[in-house]
Structure to design on (620 residues):
């Protein structure tokens, strides 16, 4: 009866004696290893079933066991394999039980084929690794039991460093105190959900830096308890884009608001003035009517200027002309032509001092608008109190950089406003009706698109703008990276 | 009755003056293009013994010194005397600007640009 039970037991069982020679094996063991009983029983040591690689060490291990025999699992913590008759390996779990008879000490082993379990585990592990996100598995005490590559990369740890650490290691310090309670709360009511809905969660890297994350939680019932699997996505980029969008929207709102006002105000005046003209003509006051007609003409000119600036600003996003040789002399002539009325009105002379030896390679339209805007500012804010007024454009080169200086002896920019010079709608003088408030903003944008820099110095003696543009043909046709012009796109939606 | 207009839009000021020309009882109309100039005008009037203007029409969005900055300085300058201010609201003033302006005790009234002559005369009369 006992013999029958042994033979038909649902697990493979093998008995060896003190010399490790196989004494008995049951049907399941035959099935598992592919040997017939008479091939092994009484003939072979147990090493026949041990993978060749570990065969030589095995007798010593058995020897050790025989000295201190105990009921235990074999090879705890290691992956054990058996070797079949055909040479293939099978993952196994082995339980050992010694027993003493008159004939000496025997060891009974039960061998379980864990290929299926191993395969499932491998699949799980592979899926865990292949997941597009950082995956972290914690047990019910909140201790990390498993992480994938993405996790170690994202958090800056080595693969083996995380297992065994409390999950709080990855949580910002200020939330650490509460976190274990939250974990317990989740385990009491486990259902798949996102963590901290409605809030921006932060995670902590090994170096202590924090980054915004989105975390999904999923409970998982293992044989030995409950686990929580969380997927962690770094959303820094999303957060950045969101912030940029909000900023851009506010800017756009401000822009629409201000331009509509700046367009509306002159129109209101034109309306009022034309009513006056009608009255004056009725009253025979032709002198005043003429003066008002001139004002209307000036206001229309201003509106036209503003609209040109708005259009230039809108287009400035989309200039993709390749860098070409720019004839700087021609740029200056162009500025002189288009600004001649303004120059005459303010009695300002436009001077130049061109000292560059090789021509500038750049986007002509942008350079042209930069120079024209800076010169036109110099003229508009010239100082009527000075005997001679000038705007001087000079050029020079410095190690691959083309430098343009636009200097005037005008009113200067009040020191307390220096921080706002390149912002939208900033006008610093009482003669504010000259400018659209868009000029320097546009200039800065162009310079940035050309990967250059702009700065200025200003005092009571005048103002000088310094523009530095890299003088090489490379890389300009492509739009500059999003980072570089992050805050500079009020018109793009 | 004397007036001080503080506004940087010269065409608008011209239109205001045309309006005021038709209004009986309006004497000298002073003009300043921003808060700082307005303070200068006021100091000049004091120095000449001309007293305070009877009404001040004030724009908010001006360069150099805006309407709010002027109202603050003006409060100190007046030393308890009152020259009522009418806020000239333009389309560039936000709701916050309007509330902020009306928060000054001295701001008694407002006019929305474009300004109708009749309204202007009515509000000046009421101030």
């Amino acid at each position: 009866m006992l013999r029958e039970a042994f033979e038909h037991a649902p697990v493979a069982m093998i008995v060896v004696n003190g010399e490790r020679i196989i004494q008995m094996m049951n049907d399941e063991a035959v099935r598992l290893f592919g040997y017939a009983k008479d091939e092994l029983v009484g003939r072979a040591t147990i090493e026949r079933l041990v993978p060749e690689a570990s065969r030589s060490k095995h007798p010593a291990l058995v020897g050790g066991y025989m000295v201190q025999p105990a009921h235990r699992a074999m090879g705890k913590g290691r992956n054990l394999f058996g070797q079949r008759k055909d040479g293939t390996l099978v993952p196994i779990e082995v339980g050992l039980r010694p027993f003493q008879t008159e004939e000496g000490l025997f060891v009974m082993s039960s061998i379980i084929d864990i290929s299926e379990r191993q395969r499932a585990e491998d699949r799980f592990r592979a899926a865990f690794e292949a997941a597009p996100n950082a995956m972290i598995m914690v047990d019910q005490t909140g201790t990390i039991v498993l992480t994938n590559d993405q996790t170690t990369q994202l958090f800056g740890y080595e693969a083996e460093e995380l297992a065994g650490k409390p999950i709080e290691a990855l949580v910002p310090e200020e939330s650490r105190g509460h976190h274990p309670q939250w974990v317990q709360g989740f385990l009491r009511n486990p259902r798949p959900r996102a963590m901290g809905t409605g809030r921006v969660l932060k995670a902590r890297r090994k170096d202590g830096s924090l980054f915004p994350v989105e975390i999904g939680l999923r409970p998982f019932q293992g044989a030995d308890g409950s686990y929580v699997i969380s997927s962690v996505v770094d959303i820094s980029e999303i957060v950045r884009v969101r912030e940029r969008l909000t900023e851009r929207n506010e800017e756009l709102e401000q822009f629409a608001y201000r331009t509509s006002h700046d367009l509306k105000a002159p129109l209101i005046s034109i309306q009022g003035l034309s009513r006056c003209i009608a009255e004056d003509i009725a009253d025979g006051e032709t002198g005043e009517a003429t003066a008002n007609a001139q004002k209307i003409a000036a206001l229309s000119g201003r509106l036209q200027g503003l609209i040109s600036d708005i259009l230039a600003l809108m287009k400035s996003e989309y200039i993709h002309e390749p860098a070409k040789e720019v004839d700087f002399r021609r740029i200056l002539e162009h500025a002189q032509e288009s600004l001649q009325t303004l120059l005459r009105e303010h009695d300002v002379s436009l001077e130049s001092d061109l000292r560059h030896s090789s021509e500038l390679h750049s986007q002509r339209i942008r350079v042209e608008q930069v120079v024209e805007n800076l010169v036109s500012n110099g003229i508009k804010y010239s100082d009527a109190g000075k005997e001679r007024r000038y705007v001087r454009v000079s050029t020079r080169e410095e190690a691959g950089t083309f430098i343009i200086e636009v200097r005037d002896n005008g009113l200067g920019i009040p020191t307390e406003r220096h921080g706002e010079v390149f912002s939208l709608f900033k006008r610093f003088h009482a003669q504010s009706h000259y400018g659209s408030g868009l000029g320097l903003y546009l200039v800065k944008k162009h310079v940035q698109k050309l990967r250059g820099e702009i700065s200025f110095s200003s005092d009571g003696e005048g103002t000088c703008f310094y523009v530095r543009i890299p003088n090489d043909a490379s890389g300009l046709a492509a739009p500059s990276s999003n980072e570089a012009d992050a805050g500079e796109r009020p018109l793009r939606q | 009755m004397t007036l001080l207009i503080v506004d940087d839009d010269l065409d608008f000021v011209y239109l205001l003056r045309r309006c005021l020309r038709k209004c009986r009882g309006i004497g000298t109309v002073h003009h300043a293009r921003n808060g700082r100039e307005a303070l200068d005008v006021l100091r000049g009037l004091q120095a000449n013994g001309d007293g305070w203007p009877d009404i001040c029409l004030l724009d908010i969005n001006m360069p150099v010194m805006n309407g709010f900055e002027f109202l603050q300085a003006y409060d100190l300058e007046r030393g308890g005397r009152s020259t009522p201010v009418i806020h000239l609201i333009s389309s560039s003033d936000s709701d916050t600007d309007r509330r902020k302006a009306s928060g000054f005790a001295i701001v008694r009234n407002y006019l929305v640009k474009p300004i109708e002559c009749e309204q202007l005369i009515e509000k000046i009369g009421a101030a």
Q: What stands out?
A: The longest helix of chain A spans residues 236-283. The CA atoms of residues 381 and 431 of chain A lie 8 Å apart.
